[in-house]
Amino acid sequence: MGLLGASCGFTRFKITENVPNELWEQIPSKLKQFAFRDIDEIPEERAWGWVAFEDMLDVEWRSAPPDKGAYLAFAFRLDTRRIPPAVLKKHVQIALREEEQRIREQGKKFIGRDRKLELRDQVRLRLLGRFLPVPAVFDIAWNTDANVVYLASTQTKLIELFMEYFTLTFDLHLEPLTPYSLAASFLDDAAIQRLDMLEPTRFA
To answer: Which string of DSSP letters, residue by residue, matches 94-160?
Structure first.
C-alpha cells in the first residue's frame, strides 16, 4: 500500500547535511532529469527512476507538481523483467543440443565452458525481449521543514537502491531513522555509551 492507503509500512530517513537553498528551485528539473525511462521495447532486466506521486506514467509532472505544502511528494518506480527459471533452463538445453549437433558435424565432441556461458547469455537476452517488465511504485514524502524523507517500503534491497539514487539525483545523503539513531539524537555522549552497553531481553 502507498502512503495514502489505510495502512502502510514505511521507512524514515534524515538528510545528513544541510540542504543548499538553491536546490529547492532545482528539484523539479532534477526529478525530470532522473525520471523513470521505460524498458518495454528494450531487453533490459531492470529500470528505475522518479515518477509523479499521482500517476506512475507521468514523468513530466503534468498531472500535478511535487510541491504539497511543506512536503515534496513523488514516487520511485522500479520495473523488473523476470524470466521464469524453468523457461530459461528449457531454452538453454535446446540451445546446447543444437550446439552439440553443430560441433559434431565439425568433428568435435565437447562444448567448452566459455561457449556454454556464452550460449546461456544469448538465450537470456533473447528471452528478455519476450517478457514484459513488472512495474512497482513506492511513494515518497519529503518533509522540507524537518528534512525527513518517508519511503513507502521496508524492503532492504529497495531501500539501498533508493538511497543511492536519491544521492545521485540531489547530491544529498540519507540515513535511516532506526530506533537507535532516534534515541541517540536525544542523548548526550555519556547516555549513548550506556545505551551501547544495553543487552536485549528475551521474553520467550
So the answer is: HHHHHHHHHHHHTT-----HHHHHHHHHHHHHHHHTTSPPEEEEEEEEEETTTTEEEES---HHHHH
92-125: per-residue pLDDT in tens? 898 888 888 888 878 777 888 888 888 888 898 8
Nearest residue to 127 (alpha-carbon basis) of 161, 87, 97 = 87
Angstrom CA distances, 190 to 185, 194, 197, stand at 13, 7, 11
Question: pTM for this one?
Answer: 0.81
What cell numbers appear for 81 in the block?
523483467
Nine-digit cell at 162? 533508493
Amino acid at 38: D
Pairing of strands 148-151, 134-143: antiparallel
Say how many C-beta atoms besides its own lie within 10 A of residue 145's C-beta: 8
All three cell numbers of 90, joined, read 528449457
Taken as a whole, the chain contains a residue count of 204
CA 195 to chain centre: 33
